[in-house]
Amino acid sequence: MFPVMLKEFFLKNKFMKATAIAPSNIALIKYWGKKDEKLRLPANSSISINLSGLKTITTVEFSPKYEKDEVIIDQKENAKEGKRVSQHLDRIRKLAKISLRAKVISKNNFPKSSGLASSASGFAALTLAGAQAAGLNLSQKELTVLARLGSGSACRSIPDGFVEWRQGKDSQSSYAYSLFPTDYWDLSIITTLVESGEKKVSTSSGHQLAKTSHFFKTRLKKINDKIVLLKNFIKEKNFLAFGELVEKEALEMHAIMLTSTPSLIYWQPATIEVLKYIQNLREAGLPVYGTIDAGPHLYIICERKNEKELINKLKKVEAIKKVIINRPAPGARLVS
Ligand code: 2P0
Hints:
This protein has helices at residues 2-12, 79-96, 118-133, 140-150, 203-209, 216-236, 239-258, 269-283, 307-314, and strands at 17-29, 34-36, 41-42, 46-62, 70-73, 102-108, 162-165, 176-180, 187-193, 289-292, 298-303, 322-326, 333-335. The longest helix is centred in the last third of the chain and has 21 residues, at 216-236. The protein has 9 helices and 13 strands. α2 packs parallel to α3, α3 crosses α4 and α6 runs antiparallel to α7 (239-258). It starts with a helix and ends with a strand. 38% of the residues lie in helices and 24% in strands. The protein is an alpha+beta fold. Bound molecules: ligand 2P0. Ligand 2P0 is lined by residues 27, 30-32, 40, 46, 117, 119, 151-153, 203-204, 207, 293-294.
């Protein structure tokens, strides 16, 4: 007890407050299914790109003035989300050997819980701001391990640019690192928002269903080969091979969802409409490919030189309510 109190005494006299900003990310090879629920160890490794247009900014302040954790996300308090954030703060408190409660204020620049990976940017920003505010001095690798415990995909929002999350065998070996920097490849990732609402099945619940699909084992058998291929396509900047693999991978993950018990359908009619639309664009000669997360919105990927033409075409699609233009982005950062 004594060392804990001593540390709090010293920390109390410092400014125990920090703010961090983190991007969301879109998985090219998806994380769907866990081999360890509690540790959030994924069934397979995954690869993603950080997104410049989808961000969360979070401030964490530990202080004796708070009797319990206060969590405000997008200007609202929500008991379920507050509890998950508080559990993550417990991990940080344990590492820092402190017991102070905290106030957390978090803002997304996009609608949360709608399939735009708000938990990725949210837990990445919370991890970095929380660790800094608690006086922890963690390496990037350690930050990714900690973020993963809050939400799996959050570990991929800590390093820069194109990121791989190695599945690992235990907590320490399941971490994320940057494969290629932000400016390695001039890609555009256009998020197309269609009609949705808050989703009914959270991704954490969805993951548990993956193993009920007969196709899940087959997916896992082939996934390492796919990862090797994708890394090579990125390295060589082979856009056509890259895009084909990425679009197929998204459909494979959704095939697992569709064939789970109970079946999980995150799509809306507009999802298929937009997917077919971009497949037609491709047939007409515009090299664009789609990927879909645990939600109804398509993320359309093209090379930067084709961005303008793509955006102009998308303006004509009624099902698309809004587009967000993303470029590969840096990972989580502290904000002074
Ligand atoms: C991914 N998704 O790789 C996949 C693709 C959604 C579809 O990671 O339970 O919110 O918090 O570890 O990270 C969403 O799952 O799940 C996700 P938890 P998470 O991006």
